[in-house]
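Backbone-to-sequence.
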């Protein structure tokens, strides 16, 4: 699938490209680089190694990916004279992106990102020690401080440029992307950089010991994989639990899935950005997970609930929030789940929130949840006809529901009517007759 770049992202990428050309052009003009045979061999070896290691990667939660090649890239910064590391790293990334047939803008961004990351990180060393080999640097506290600054700069520049681009593409906040994408893997990423620094030192002193660094590098990468797998498995486990709760009653099977689908349609019409729609989707999939604490005798009761039973039923949004609270993947969805039974007029539960104090995603789920509940059959009643349910929701605007959300819902159901109309126009005459006869 080809990614669509908004104008703001295109401008940012082109600005990065211009900054890259300016940095490398100025550096090559000012810095006297001696391309010895040793430098060329090192550049080729590290370039090929990083290219091969690009195959060992995994995607991040929101977008982008990280790879094992960080070790070779960090070693480049210390082993190649400034600004050769930036040029070799940029070339490696371009070759990898061409091999993967990425879009031109993606190639420009990745090449600029790496060139600036390598260039600015290497510039710190150059300003401190010139093009001195890492093993010839003075054994002082200053050297340690410089190396630490380079490790942090490499991480910060790479992540910041990536996250800004993702924020512009997906209309998300920079803070949200950093917390979701980068925070869980910050330490393993920095560890890979440190292994890269050690690789440069060992390579320059006792090359035969370099293979030993495979052990900490692989261990660090396994940590990446485990963190990524845990994030996905936690989300999937919670969604599966919510689906199992739905299936306790065959009449509510797939309820959460349908609510999520309708919520997303409403949100799209309502104009939510990509970040908020993803939060909404996830919250809708688990919005009834708190019902795990409610017994079947209450959950499936045919008649009217007693006051005690009703209080028990009203506890499920709070229980749902508490179930999600230990998992950082749901830190944004907890409040949405808690508030999905609040009412616009303040007569909902559990907190009696009024109007816009209710999270917008909760207001959307409330409409979708109510519509699905009204149109689904139960052992003690048939589901309401669609139009009756739609009219009920329309009449409850300004009391139970946010009127603007109801307006977006009505646009969604209007689209449904148009689609049904188009389908019926293209339906063969004999099939229309059969359908009419059987209705």
């Amino acid at each position: 699938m080809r990614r669509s770049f908004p104008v703001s992202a295109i401008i940012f990428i082109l600005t990065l490209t211009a900054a890259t050309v300016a940095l490398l052009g100025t550096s090559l003009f000012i810095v006297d680089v001696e391309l010895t045979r040793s430098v060329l061999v090192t550049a080729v070896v590290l370039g090929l190694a990083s290219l091969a290691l690009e195959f060992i990667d995994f995607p991040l939660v929101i977008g982008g990916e990280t790879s094992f090649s960080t070790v070779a890239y960090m070693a480049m910064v210390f082993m190649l004279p400034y600004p050769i590391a930036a040029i070799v790293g940029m070339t490696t990334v371009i070759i990898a992106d061409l091999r993967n047939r990425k879009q031109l803008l993606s190639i420009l961004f990745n090449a600029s990102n790496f060139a600036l990351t390598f260039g600015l990180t290497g510039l710190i060393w150059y300003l401190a020690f010139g093009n001195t080999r890492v093993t010839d640097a003075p054994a002082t506290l200053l050297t340690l401080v410089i190396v630490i600054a380079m490790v942090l700069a490499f991480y910060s520049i790479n992540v910041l440029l990536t996250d800004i681009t993702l924020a512009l593409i997906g209309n998300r906040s920079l803070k949200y992307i950093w917390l979701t994408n980068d925070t869980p893997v910050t330490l393993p990423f920095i560890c890979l950089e440190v292994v890269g620094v050690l690789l440069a030192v060992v390579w320059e002193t006792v090359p035969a010991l370099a293979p030993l660094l495979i052990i900490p590098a692989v261990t660090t990468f396994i940590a990446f994989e485990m963190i990524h797998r845990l994030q996905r498995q936690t989300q999937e486990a919670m969604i599966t639990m919510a689906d199992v709760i739905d299936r306790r009653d065959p009449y509510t099977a797939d309820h959460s899935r349908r609510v999520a689908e309708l919520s997303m349609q409403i949100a799209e019409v309502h104009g939510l950005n990509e970040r908020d729609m993803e939060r909404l989707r996830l919250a809708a999939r688990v919005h009834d997970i708190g019902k795990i604490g409610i017994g079947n005798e209450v959950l499936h009761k045919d008649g009217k609930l007693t006051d005690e039973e009703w209080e028990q039923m009203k506890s499920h949004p709070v229980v749902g929030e508490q179930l999600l609270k230990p998992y950082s993947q749901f830190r944004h969805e907890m409040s949405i789940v808690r508030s999905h039974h609040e009412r616009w007029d303040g007569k909902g539960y559990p907190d009696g929130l009024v109007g816009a104090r209710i999270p917008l995603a909760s207001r959307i789920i409330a409409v979708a949840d109510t519509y699905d509940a009204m149109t689904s059959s139960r052992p003690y009643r048939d589901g309401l006809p669609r139009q009756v349910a739609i009219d009920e929701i329309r009449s409850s605007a300004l009391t139970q529901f946010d009127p603007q959300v109801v307006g977006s819902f009505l646009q969604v159901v209007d689209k449904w009517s148009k689609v049904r109309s188009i389908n019926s126009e293209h339906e063969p005459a004999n099939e229309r007759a059969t359908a009419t006869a059987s209705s």
